[in-house]
Sequence to fold (631 residues):
Amino acid sequence: MSARRIIQRLLFLVLVVWAASTITFFIPRLSPKNPIRERFAQLARTGGFSPGDLEKIIASMNTKFGLDKPLLQQYTEYIGSIARFDLGVSLNQFPKTVWDLIAESLPWTITLLLVTTVLSFVLGNLLGAVAAWPRAPSWLRAIATPFVLLQGVPPVLLALFLLFFIAFRLKLLPLGSAYSTGRIPDWSFSFILDVARHQILPALSLIFGTVGGWVLSMRGMGVTIQGEDYVNFAEHKGLSGYTIFRNYYLRNALLPQVTGLALALGNVVVSGIVVEQFFGLPGLGQVLFAAIQSNDFLVIYGIVLFITIAVASLMVLVELLYPLLDPRIREA
Amino acid sequence: MTTIAIPQPQVQQPGRLTLLLRYLRRNKSLVFGLLILLFLISFTVFGLLTVDTKQAYPLSVRSKQPPSLKYPLGTDFFGRNLMAAMVVGLWQTAVIGLLAGGVGTLIGVVLGFISAYFGGLIDALIKGICQILTPIPAFLLQVVIAGSLDKRSVTIYTMAVVVLLLAWMGPTLVIRSQVLSMKERQFVSVAKLSGVGDVGIIFGEILPNLLPFIAAAFVNQVFVSLFASLYLSVLGLGPLREPLMGNLIWAAQGQSAFFNGWWWWPVFPALGLVLIFSSLALINMGLDELANPRVRRTE
Fold:
């Protein structure tokens, strides 16, 4: 991997972040809604201050957040603050910064996504590889079929059916939320167990929703690799089926899947956020959604940018690490 | 020398229909996908003809009724007949999917052609924009767009446009790479040497050969658009007045339908959506096999 290539990819990353921040900056500005006006009009309806006061408050808030400056100046200041990793403050929960909100909710999201993505990737690739392996027993190859049929169904719909059958009909697991009502979060064993119980259905729906995709692409890869000379050669050498499967077949078929994982990250995160919100878990999805409901626009931008940067950086990282997995690219 | 008339064995060339049926027997996913789609279409058409569509809107029937003979799919908390809501919702889903999918594919075909056929600076520009936008999770930007709209004025058409705004990059890149590879084929060179103009080559030589890819891109585009619009509406960012199936699920979840025992309210719309997405995914797989015969070996 030449230094030039690394610099090229990093520049690309900067461009992606710039594009995302520019779009997120201009879209709300083009809309007729003024987030501050909306927010305080909402307050004015519920608790009493007169329309005259309202205008004064809006004017002073506009000055405070720099919304009365020319658009171009606002834009350059905004880009400047992003370059300093300053995402601003929440309008709704004022003293808190956007980073505070992200830090509070991120552990929930990361845990759920990490566990489900790893499990789904491993399970899907194994099942897919086995499904394309002619010497595997037929019952083992058949396991993959139901997952392939689920492929394409959005995880949030699977979540709904899991809720219906397991939580509503069989009453085995809770209907939603992060932990039982009335419990106070601490690090005790029973609390962690309670949280884990609440995470089973969200995790299952994300896993079932994504496994099929991996099975399908891995099966396709596996079929192509079987015809390769080196697999035939290994067979004629008399290597055991397991050795061929693991070292000659799986290892080669997995390479494009790693790229696939990098490309799928965006969808994984999006589905995760929607499922999280569906179950009422306190992750990034809930913060984003609460911000949308209350027009807390700096929080909306902050979270959108944070996720974009995370996804794009992971993509570039995988691309840069790829030569470690594939010796053939190291030379080129 | 005597000529002996050897009776020619009658070789029956199978008709086109037989060939088509034979092909479909091999391509099971395409058949199943089309069958589900056919079922959904007939359900919608039959429903639109027989069910009173006014009942798809709130306060039109008695609320919270479980499925019965009068209301086969029950009624919801707001007094909507779920049967009518499903029929109207399916129709609107079809409108969004066809609109966003169709226009997205069209943009993709046009940009992909321009980019690949003319090359140079235009190509670099179009390809660059697509590549920079692709890593950004489009759904997040769609959330920002939908969030900045005035909620009362969101219609299914706004929804289609919101979904479309960030969904044309995929087809553009696909069509571009196909045109690039087709441009180098010999039949294009022959046409060029015999004096066929750019327009003639694009419409007479390249486009007809691209049709399977365009069809696959279209189905995929419909799928992506419906996926995005489901996510938006499940989060309550859709056209709230309309009985779009994602909206029904959002409303049911908001009223804790499971907790209150009104299971039919979210379950039937979700079932409809599962059928839509499975059908599109199956057709997609089937078309993939049709357009790219190398995948056929997976059988």
